[in-house]
Amino acid sequence: MARRLCCWRAPSRRTSSAPEKPKRWRTARRSARVGPAPPAGSSSGAEQTWILLGCDGAGKSTLAAALCERASRSDTTPTCGFTTASATLRRQRLRLFDVGGGAGIRAIWDNYYAEAHAAIFVVDASDVERLEEARRLLHAACAHANLAGKPLLIVGNKSDLPHAAGTDELAAALGAHALAAGPRGVCRTSALSDAVAARERGGSDDSLASSLDWLATTVQQDFGSLEERRRRQAAEQAEEELRRKEERKARLAAKRAERERAEAAEQAASGEAVADLAEALDHTKLCDS
């Protein structure tokens, strides 16, 4: 089971000092390194689909903006539903699924797991009061059959703010090591907005890029099986959605037929009542004559 734990502090807006060299921790079983040629059977040119998950306000849309090289941070607003975007990371083509993190929209998350090759879970490391909420969301997502075991990168955002959780604290609070087996990494950055700011200056956030490179390489090295799984799960999900749609149509048709039968019975009863009344009136007229 490959694991990768990265810790860094991206350049702060309050200082011009160079970023610290990333520190890496690995279990006895080493994770895949970034850089070597992909193994036979991998696909280096195929588009990868990543889904961005996390609580509202964690920084998912800001990360998507950084990957898409948007020119301004001001256009990053909370996602209310679901948006897609295209990006390129060191010649690797990406399709990003940015799903809203609000409590009222989280129910749609599992609609998009099947299409994803990998997931990025963004958490606000400075909001320690919501780490338990983030942990529940993370574990629920990773337990879903369509996402379990797929490559996962956990990004701790805003680590330069007061009271932000450290890397080990963040990993422990999120229960990162108890997730379903599969490649996963944990990293921290001082602010994802720094990545967008770096794009504006014509540079890049090398610290964040190293973990994104790890995710892209991990997917690339196992792309054949991940793509086969994506296609199969997407087909199964489409079939299930069609089945549910047909069931809804059948239920609506049954209700409509029942309503029409009730209306017909009511009309028939009303017609019989009118006929009985007419017959009674005719009988009365005969008696009077």
UniProtKB/TrEMBL annotation:
It comes from the Eukaryota. Residues 23-32 have a biased composition (Basic residues). Keywords: GTP-binding, Magnesium, Metal-binding, Nucleotide-binding. GO terms for molecular function: GTP binding; GTPase activity; metal ion binding. GTP binds at residues 54-61, 101, 157-160. Residues 253-264 have a biased composition (Basic and acidic residues). InterPro entries: Ciliary_GTPase, P-loop_NTPase, Small_GTP-bd, Small_GTPase_ARF/SAR. Mg(2+) binds at residues 61, 79. The keyword Metal-binding applies. Residues 10-45, 253-274 are annotated as: Disordered. The keyword Magnesium applies. This is Uncharacterized protein.
